[in-house]
């Protein structure tokens, strides 16, 4: 099972900052993280960089909790423009069972939405 996360907006290296922030906490739960590229959409000029969460039984609520904590802590920093978080969980290797979630807005709104989704 794997979960892919892409982020638009935020800091220059928002994805890398997030990966470093959640990596250790998730490792203790048996979830590995790595930066990679996502699927290239038809007509796109290049691949989107994503953080990949891998494990035998990666629970979406566990990843959402880590993301919510990251966004909440990020609120203490300087205000930034809106963010868009896209999370895609694939249960089967052939990609036939997928769960997709897109949350966009100000960091405070994203933190609230991720809390409600857990």
- Please indicate the percent range of residues in DSSP E strands (runs of 2 or more): 25-35%
Span of the ends, CA to CA: 18 Å
Q: Enumerate the spans where pLDDT stays under 50 for 5 or more consecutive residues.
A: none
Mean pLDDT: 81
Q: Could you describe the 3D structure shown?
A:
The chain has 118 residues and is an alpha+beta fold. It is 34% helix and 31% strand. The protein is built from three helices and five strands, in the order E-H-E-E-H-E-E-H. Strands 2-3-1-4-5 form a five-stranded antiparallel beta sheet, covered by helices on one side. Strand 4 and strand 5 form a beta hairpin. Helix 1 packs across helix 2. The radius of gyration is 14 Å and the shape is globular. The model has no long low-confidence stretch (mean pLDDT 81).
Secondary structure elements and their pairing?
Blueprint: E1 2-9, H1 14-27, E2 32-37, E3 49-54, H2 60-74, E4 83-90, E5 98-105, H3 107-117
Antiparallel strand pairs: 1-3, 1-4, 2-3, 4-5
Main attributes of the structure:
single chain; 118 residues; alpha+beta; five-stranded antiparallel beta sheet; 3 helices; 34% helix; 31% strand
Condensed summary:
The protein has helices spanning 14-27, 60-74, 107-117, and strands at 2-9, 32-37, 49-54, 83-90, 98-105. It has 118 residues and is an alpha+beta fold. A hairpin with a 7-residue loop joins strand 4 and strand 5 (98-105).
